[in-house]
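Trying the structure run again after the queue cleared.
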Amino acid sequence: MTIDLPVVDISTTVACCEPLVREPLRADEAEDLAKTMKALADPTRLRLLSIVAATAAHEACVCDLTEPVGLSQPTVSHHLKILTDAGFLARSKRGTWAYYALVPGALERVADVLTP
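Done. Tokens:
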């Protein structure tokens, strides 16, 4: 018994995967981005960023950030240090207080990696 298989014209066959339209992340870039995103993967840090972003000058004194998140100043300062080390905030000292400002483009750089 013979089985007749259909003849397929491979010139019209559609590939199963879409071609890449840009370069994907290299391993080292993915490692760096994961560290950056880990800084954002905390509800308190997201709230702190949103508070700073919601101010008219996009900066806030640490003294103004403790009450809204309900944490002590040392704990808030720890979270702010993580956000600063990750490149989302810049710190400046004025007298005895530290002020934190959004780094221009920091959030957009994370979004750009994940948007087409």
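Helices lie at 27-40, 43-54, 66-69, 73-85, 106-114. Worth checking whether this holds up in the mutant runs.
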